[in-house]
Design brief:
mainly beta; eight-stranded parallel sheet
């Protein structure tokens, strides 16, 4: 009984990523770090496990998937980072993808201008839960933001 009680409340250790998932994550991180204005970062169709928060700090970049139900960045095993994707940039477009099961906010865009968020889905697939991230799509201290045909499901505070 003592061992059972001692194990209660412990976080589960995430399953290790496959080699293919680790390669995809490494390539995506590299593309985000090395991005230049005008770049389009494509997210192919499929479920892509990501275990670390992603960030973009370059203006003029587009992140584009194959559709909000086809290109899925799954943060179910996230072990690092406060958001799924954190963007500190202007003239940014993100479209046609999903961000699922982040530890914190799904998509946070901070202090940017001329932002387009189109056909993006953020979701916590376990349903409503106060342990889910607070915000699905969270443009904060931003100007000239278009949020179009987006879906936010299961955030613990506000979807958008």
């Amino acid at each position: 009984l003592v061992l059972l009680l001692a194990s209660c409340g412990r976080d589960k250790t995430p399953e290790p990523m496959t080699d293919a998932a680790a390669d995809f994550q490494k390539q995506l991180l590299t593309r985000l770090i090395n991005a230049r204005p005008g770049d389009v970062i494509e997210i192919p169709a499929g479920v892509h496990p990501i275990n670390r928060g992603l960030s973009l700090n370059v203006s003029g970049v587009t992140i584009r998937g194959a559709g909000m139900d086809q290109s899925i960045l799954s943060f179910k095993g996230q072990v690092q980072g406060a958001e799924g994707l954190l963007v500190n940039a202007s003239d940014f477009t993100i479209e046609d993808l999903a961000i699922e099961d982040t530890a914190g906010d799904g998509l946070k865009i901070n202090e940017g201008r001329n932002i387009v968020i189109r056909r993006v889905r953020t979701e916590w697939t376990n349903g409503p839960d106060e342990a889910n991230g607070a915000y699905g799509i969270y443009p904060v201290q931003t100007e000239n933001v278009l949020v179009e045909e987006c879906v936010a499901i299961g955030a613990s505070d506000a979807g958008i």
